[in-house]
Amino acid sequence: MKPTLQFLFAVLFLLNSNCFFAQEKEKTEKEAQKEQSDYTKKLTDEQQTLKKEQKRIDKHLRDLKNSEKDIENTSKKIEKLEAKHFKLESKINTTSFSPEDLQKQKIKIKEEELEIQKLKLKKIQQQNKIEGLKAQY
């Protein structure tokens, strides 16, 4: 009977150890699956953060480009007004006008000078804006 008991204990031991190893394997697989799930979530979060940052950078670059265009357009307007102003002054100096027309032309010159100064102020404000945008990065 002793060999039968030994055999029975050996079989029970094998069954018990197989069950133990199966549980350990299952536990290990669950842990690996959880780690993979955590990693996937972390990766997804990181991708979303990168997308947000890329959108923010794209918006910043777009703002910079628009600001540069605004400055360029304002500079062109100033140049046109200054050329027009110069022509008007030349016209006043070379042509004889009645006192009334002369006064109208001088008023027109003053209005143009005021408009030029407004545009120059606008350009300075635009330059300050673009410097602020550049300072952000």
Short synopsis of the structure:
This protein is mostly helical and 137 residues long. It is built from two helices and no strands.
What does this structure look like?
The chain contains 2 helices and no strands. With 137 residues, the protein is mainly α. α1 packs antiparallel against α2. The N and C termini lie far apart (87 Å). The mean pLDDT is 87.
Strand tally is 0
Order of helices and strands: HH
Radius of gyration computed on alpha carbons: 41 Å
Q: What do the pLDDT scores average to?
A: 87
What percent of residues are in strands?
A: under 5%
Question: Helices and strands: which structural class?
Answer: mainly alpha
Largest sheet: none
Quaternary assembly: single chain
Distance between the termini: 87 Å
What is the overall number of helices?
2
Shape: rod-shaped
Give me some keywords for this one:
2 helices, single chain, 137 residues, 96% helix, mainly alpha
List the helices and strands and how they pair.
Elements: H1 2-94, H2 99-136
Helix pairs in contact: 1-2
